[in-house]
Amino acid sequence: MDSAFVFKPRGHRTDPDSLFATGTGDSQSLSQACIHSSSESCIITQSEQIVPLGESMEFVVKSVTADKQKTPCLVIGIQKSGLLSTAQSIDTITSGLLTELIKGGDLSCKAGETLLLHHVPEASCERLLLATAGDVDKPMSEAEYKKLVTNIIKAVNAANLKEVSVAIDELVVADKNTAWVARQFAEIVEHQLYCFDTFKSDASKESAPALKKAILLTARKTANAVKASVAQGCAIAKGRNVARTLGNLPGNICHPTYLANEAKALAKQHNKLTTKVLGEKQMADLGMHSLLSVSKGSAQEAKLILMEFKNGKKNEQPLVLLGKGITFDSGGISLKPGAGMDEMKFDMCGAASIFGVMNTIIEMDLPLNVVGMVAAAENMPGSQASRPGDIVTSMSGKTIEILNTDAEGRLVLCDALTYAERYKPEAVIDVATLTGACVIALGHHTTGLLSNNDELTSALLIASKEASDKAWQLPMGEEYQQQLDSNFADMANIGGRSGGTITAGCFLSRFTESYPWAHLDIAGTAWTSGKNKGASGRPVPMLVQFLLNKVK
Ligand code: BES
Ligand code: MN
Ligand code: ZN
Fold first, then answer.
1. Which of 345, 406, 527 to mutate to test the pocket of ligand 1 (most atoms within 8 A of CB)?
2. Is the CB of 382 under 6 A from ligand 1?
3. What digits encode the pLDDT tens for the residues 373-416?
4. Where are the beta strands (DSSP E) in 394-473?
5. Terminal alpha carbon distance of the chain
6. Among the four 133, 337, 442, 444, which has the fewest Cβ within 10 Å?
7. Does the annotation mark 13 as catalytic?
8. Tell me, what's the pLDDT at 41?
């Protein structure tokens, strides 16, 4: 049985040797003195020499020639009917090889395509990876750049290469600077290298990624910014991968008590973090009968997990981040259909993202007070389970008629939101795989955002843009609130088929009247189905960016 299963996750594969390095200047002067960044997987190599941008690019070709051993693979950007400067230099020394490849159609000019060349003699690097950066004179879009980096990593791994060098300054993305390009590069590489093989009997048989080191070649003047960005990117990716692993764990292992123990373990490692866990008895004493109604049909005890990170000014009001932690959502008595029900182990991805963010802000040592809350429960149809029609009294005193036991997320969140009042928060943001309707409205690319505060909304939307972690606001209002009317209690827990994401937001808004609040519905963005089934770790990037912007 579950309790007898002693489980130690090996977690995702973060190889301490997986390195990022940023270098500038002449190859001969590339100092090997390594400055360890805050991320364990990130080592920065820095040149002492000041080299202007143009020269730097030409130099990369030289560096490859001079430093054969250290550059097994060089990535160069190619543009449709034009060559970026490194490519230009290589084209010159190879008597027009690249121009010929493009003319001959060997390299398609669609942004994101790659072509790996083995041993171009004049270039003197073992391999050249040509990467298409789209139209000449036109910067790449974000999506194109993400695809390009993803394909670079795929090509490098397919060729089993350990190390890659990229002239990062040449990759130009619309409206973004080199620092952004570098941070995304680090994030995407770490994301690609993630591997969840905890439950594979012979993990070594799985194709472990080969890539261990990425050298970002940049101009001297951007080196420091690039270095900081790479460190940030690594910290964000790490938090995101923490969230992915928790999300990917099966429901029989990752239950509310497991999450509570994770929170306790995190606090043990870091003295700025304190974890408190409320069990069902304590929650009953507080009157959290809405939250408790969800776990009644389960053998697993519900937990309210409080992770208090105190690293800001003493009297500064904290930001509260709350995650929906339904470790398995069967629907309860309003049972879900069988097909795809396994994916309801991902119904704690909101909670997982809170763990991810806490990990990242600890690593970044952000000078903020942040409370990470997780409302954890399992929604099962046991004999003690809540029935459709049951009426419960929430901690706020408001009564709720449970018309559908599958609308359980809002039932656990509403009591946690009331509890959050105790912190006198500057703002509360909840993150939840709340409604299937959100997948219909926004698909799998964009997180839904609902809020009672315009300032908080715009701060989150700005962060979402900066972090390239899409979100979009949906409306709320009196007209929608009426859909929650109940004949027998203060409100029903469902508002009918139309505007399902909005009525869920309206339900939560009734418990958030005393502080600025935003709700992120990640039902469509928290995981991928199908062949690449797995948790995405979103919206860790957006939330971390929001917190980073608070510090600035
Ligand atoms: N966890 C689900 C929402 C969900 C469904 C997320 C599918 C991602 C994919 C949530 O608890 C739920 O079941 N919501 C119901 C609400 C309805 C009963 C009002 C839904 O969306 O169908
Ligand atoms: Mn449900
Ligand atoms: Zn759910």
1. 406
2. no
3. 999 999 999 999 999 999 999 999 999 999 999 999 999 999 99
4. 399-402, 427-432, 447-451, 471-473
5. 49
6. 337
7. no
8. 30
In angstroms, what is the span from residue 371 Cα to ligand 1's centroid? Answer: 26
The class of domain 249-550 in CATH terms is: alpha beta
Residue 25 confidence class, pLDDT cut points 50, 70, 90? very low
More confident residue, 75 or 515: 515
Whether 221 is catalytic is no
Instruction: Place domain 3-196+203-244 in its CATH homologous superfamily.
Output: Leucine Aminopeptidase, subunit E, domain 1 (3.40.220.10)
Q: How far is the CA of 435 from the centre of ligand 2 (A)?
A: 8
What is the pLDDT averaged over residues 521-533? Answer: 98
The whole-angstrom separation of Cα 37 and Cα 366 is: 15
* pLDDT tens digits, 254-282: 999 999 999 999 999 999 999 999 999 99
Strand pairing of 34-36 and 43-45? antiparallel
Query: Which ligand is in closest contact with the Cα of 433?
Result: 1
The residue to mutate among 410, 413, 435, having the most atoms of ligand 1 within 8 angstroms of its beta carbon, is 435
For residue 374, the cross-strand partners are 305, 323
CA-to-CA dists, residue 23 to 38, 51, 167, angstroms: 18, 11, 10
Structural domain boundaries in the chain: 3-196+203-244, 249-550
- pTM summary value: 0.90
The yes-or-no answer to whether 3-196+203-244 and 249-550 have a common fold is no
CA distance 464 to 544: 10
Measured from the CB, is residue 523 less than 6 Å from ligand 1?
yes
Q: What is the pLDDT of residue 421?
A: 98
